[in-house]
């Protein structure tokens, strides 16, 4: 499709990158970006870009990526619980200041011939353009006008973004207990000698600390200084004498955006306007810039806007929905994070890396052998081999109260072991349905049950959800916990054992 005039709503990373790529692909196209804010009033802290995203950006536009990498800050990752820390190498992960990223993208967009207009709020129906690319963010006014079938799911936990004027040596995950409850920071360094501090907690802790009141008292364009001063004390060790910096910083709940359609007429949604994925695994910047690549490729390969938009959505939706599902699992894990603080930090790191099912245990062991070896030894009280870790995990013996098992794979329930069986009954192990399962499990324990067996369909999402539900019951009701799955799920089940999600596993059909 030859586009004569294209309008882009939103001057964030996705909008600027789409504008540049479109102008490079179609030099005769008049591409204008409309950004309601001013370029010197951008808010936000650091943005992270992982290795996979960098590869896609390099293939699409190596010049822009080169400048992003030059402005970025590489770092590894550390988890600290109490006085114990564990470190994982991730030498292609970079953090970059959002302001610097936008400056790079703006410079390259203008170099390609894109015009950028600031300071006015524009709507799609008032723009004279063949296509309108709506990259106007999670609160997209374009999406909310209708035609896209939007659905917004609000998370249970609360979080806020802030920063500090020093660069951490690594990305850091650190929970800290207070008189009100547990707060967790996800912090990482970025360019300019600064660090992002994302801090989250559960609603009960948030209310006990009085942050419901401080949130209500904070104007939309201000920062919640009451929370910032409190959190400086909570994370004093991690801040190393520095203060927290606010920038429209306030507690909020994550909103997962989904749309039945990503286009309507000549308007197409891009990035957070079309979809979001929880920050603990997804990146709005990553998804938006990859959307831009897909959209421009679709426009070049189809004769008209409807066909191009359909191709764009068909090519991008599977990746986005996969990321949203991974992010959903990660979000649920983080919202229930304080329940795991009794584990050694090495096992907790394995639980973190395998929480969403996208990092298999054996792959994590290949990249971080020392961490996984320590976690496996804590799990089994013996040193694991250098190879065949999954099979070794499954073959370890278990003594649980009055029962002994020669291996962690249970071919049949032994005589005299009283188990209550739960078939798959939940989508979210921490919602009301999950609460009901825990209540039933507690009652069963009072009535003499030795433990619980979790069964259900053999598809991978069902197995992963079963592991999460089993973990919650194991933590809150106690008893022996067994999770069923097909032989193809051996890796996930082994990760569940090392992570403390279950005690034993059983195969739907015993593997040879």
UniProtKB/TrEMBL annotation:
Q: Where is the FAD-binding domain?
A: 7-324
Q: Which Pfam families match?
A: FAD_binding_3
Which UniProt keyword terms apply here?
NAD, Oxidoreductase
The cross-references to InterPro entries, in alphabetical order and at most eight, read: FAD-bd, FAD/NAD-bd_sf, PheA/TfdB_FAD_monoxygenase
Coiled coil is among the record's keywords: no
Where does the sequence pass through the membrane? none
Q: Report the protein name in the record.
A: FAD-binding domain-containing protein
Tell me the classification of the organism that encodes this protein.
Answer: Bacteria, Bacillati, Actinomycetota, Actinomycetes, Pseudonocardiales
């Amino acid at each position: 499709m030859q586009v004569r005039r294209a309008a882009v709503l939103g001057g964030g990373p996705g909008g600027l990158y789409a504008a540049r790529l479109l102008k490079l692909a179609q030099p005769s196209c008049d591409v204008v970006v409309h950004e309601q804010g001013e370029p010197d009033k951008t808010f936000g802290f650091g943005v992270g870009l992982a290795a996979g995203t960098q590869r896609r950006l390099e293939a699409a536009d190596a010049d822009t990526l080169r400048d992003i990498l030059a402005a970025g800050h590489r770092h590894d990752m550390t988890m600290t619980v109490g006085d114990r820390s564990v470190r994982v190498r991730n030498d292609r992960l970079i953090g970059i200041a959002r302001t610097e990223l936008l400056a790079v993208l703006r410079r390259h967009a203008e170099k390609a011939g894109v015009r950028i207009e600031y300071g006015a709020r524009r709507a799609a129906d008032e723009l004279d353009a063949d296509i309108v690319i709506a990259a106007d963010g999670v609160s997209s006014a374009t999406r909310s006008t209708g035609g896209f079938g939007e659905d917004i799911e609000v998370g249970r936990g609360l979080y806020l973004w802030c920063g500090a004027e020093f660069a951490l040596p690594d990305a850091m995950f650190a929970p800290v207990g207070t008189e009100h409850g547990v707060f967790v920071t996800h912090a990482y360094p970025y360019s300019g000698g600064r660090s992002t501090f994302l801090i989250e907690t559960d609603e009960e802790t948030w209310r006990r600390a009085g942050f419901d009141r401080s949130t209500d008292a904070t104007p939309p364009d201000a920062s919640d200084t009451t929370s910032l001063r409190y959190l400086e004390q909570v994370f004093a060790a991690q801040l190393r004498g520095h203060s927290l910096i606010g920038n429209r910083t306030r507690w909020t709940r994550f909103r997962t955006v989904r749309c039945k359609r990503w286009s309507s007429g000549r308007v197409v949604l891009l990035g957070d306007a079309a979809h979001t994925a929880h920050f603990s695994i997804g990146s709005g910047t990553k998804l938006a810039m990859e959307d831009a690549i897909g959209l421009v490729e679709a426009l070049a390969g189809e004769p008209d806007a409807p066909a191009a938009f359909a191709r764009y959505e068909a090519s991008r939706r599977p990746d986005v929905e996969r990321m949203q599902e991974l992010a959903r699992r990660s979000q649920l894990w983080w919202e229930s994070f304080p329940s795991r603080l009794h584990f050694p930090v090495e096992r907790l790191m394995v639980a973190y890396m395998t929480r969403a099912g996208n990092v298999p245990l054996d792959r994590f062991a290949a990249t971080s052998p020392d961490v996984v070896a320590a976690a496996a030894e804590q799990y089994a009280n013996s040193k694991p081999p250098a190879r065949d870790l999954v099979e070794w995990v499954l073959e370890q013996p278990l003594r649980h109260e009055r029962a002994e098992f020669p291996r962690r794979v249970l071919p049949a329930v032994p005589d005299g072991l009283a188990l209550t069986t739960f078939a798959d009954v939940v989508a979210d192990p921490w919602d009301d349905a999950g609460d009901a399962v825990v209540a039933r499990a507690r009652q069963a324990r009072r009535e003499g049950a030795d433990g619980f067996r979790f069964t259900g369909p053999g598809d991978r999402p069902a197995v992963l959800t079963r592991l999460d539900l089993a973990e919650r019951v194991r933590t809150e009701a106690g008893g022996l916990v067994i999770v069923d799955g097909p032989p193809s799920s051996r890796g996930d089940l082994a990760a569940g054992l090392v992570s403390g999600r279950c005690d034993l596993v059983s195969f739907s059909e015993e593997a040879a």
